[in-house]
Amino acid sequence: MFRSAHRLLLIAFLVGSLPTFAQKTDARLTQKLIEAMRGFRGETGIYVYHLESGKSVAINADTTFPTASTIKVPIMIGLFDQIEKGTINYQQEIVYRDSLHYDDGIVGSLKDGAKFPLSQIVMLMETISDNTGSLWCQALAGGGKAINAWLDANGFPQTRVNSRTPGREPFRTRYGWGQTTPRELASLLTYIRQGKAVSPAASDRMYRNLGRQFWDEDGLSQLPKEVKVATKNGAVNQSRSEVMLVHAPHGEYVYCVMTKNQADQSWGRTNEGSTLLRTVSSIIWQHFEPKSGFKPTEGYEKWW
């Protein structure tokens, strides 16, 4: 009894420390999303917030999930914090070394001694989710410890970088590269959108970076191509995740959907987690923009 009460108080404290927005539960959208989750073989959490109306949905929104590549949003923030402090320069030339190699993505395929502006490595981190480039940026940001300190200081206590971070090995074993909650990750993207992350100028640059996404076959595929979206997604065997801030005609909305412990560990468009990401995106768009008449182009699936 005492432990349960203590846990509830702790959760309330942690949630209360987040950047706050006036909210009211959208019961109709909540029910639609609960139905969409029915039968999913795994755990999932969803958080939705309509910035203009204040309507929200929170389904397991404060449960901790693996970030997969969505951790690259906090990594970028930590990097820009160092840039703001003058430790490094966004356009400075940096030199790739074979010791940085993690996998054979674009950055990992560079020749030892190759020189590139830091800004291009950041672009590869956010746009194509290059892993070697991202770990390089994490190191330049001062490592996971420095990034986590920024998150803690700015009211994001449940979002953490785990990999290559002293003291975080048990969490890395459980969650992988990073961990967060749907509410926190959506709030972090909103924080950037509102110009509050590091500085207004840094937030502006970061938000522009998040508006260029190569991996557009999930939630983005369910939105009109002319609508501006800032987004980051991630995938590992047992987890899929996506956070998006959509500049919809009748008001911007942000949402995050995350999964873990998926039974379906396949890779490809039919993965249950990937299918859920598309379904959630479509439901939210149709809910807030019912008169848009938008339907994904017939036959577009063959391109993915």
SSE arrangement:
Elements (H helix, E strand, L loop, with lengths): L1 H15 L7 E2 L1 H11 L5 E8 L4 E5 L5 E2 L5 H14 L7 E3 L19 E3 H10 L3 H10 L2 H11 L6 E2 L7 H7 L2 E3 L1 H12 L6 H10 L19 E8 L2 E8 L6 E8 L11 H17 L16
Parallel strand pairs: 1-3
Antiparallel strand pairs: 2-3, 2-11, 4-8, 5-6, 7-8, 9-10, 10-11
Mean pLDDT: 93
Task: State the share of residues found in helices, binned by percent.
Answer: 25-40%
Q: What count of structural domains?
A: 2
SS field, number of helical segments: 10
The CATH architecture of the largest domain comes to: 3-Layer(aba) Sandwich
Describe this structure in words.
By secondary structure, the protein is α+β, with helices and mostly antiparallel strands. The protein has 2 domains: 19-63 and 181-295, 3-Layer(aba) Sandwich (Beta-lactamase), CATH 3.40.710; 68-159, Beta-lactamase. It has 10 helices and 11 strands. The chain has a 6-stranded mixed beta sheet, sandwiched between helices. Strand 2 (43-50) and strand 3 form a beta hairpin. Mean pLDDT is 93; it is low at 1-17. Residues 45-259 form the Beta-lactamase class A catalytic domain. Residues 1-22 form the signal peptide. This is Serine hydrolase. Keywords: Hydrolase, Signal.
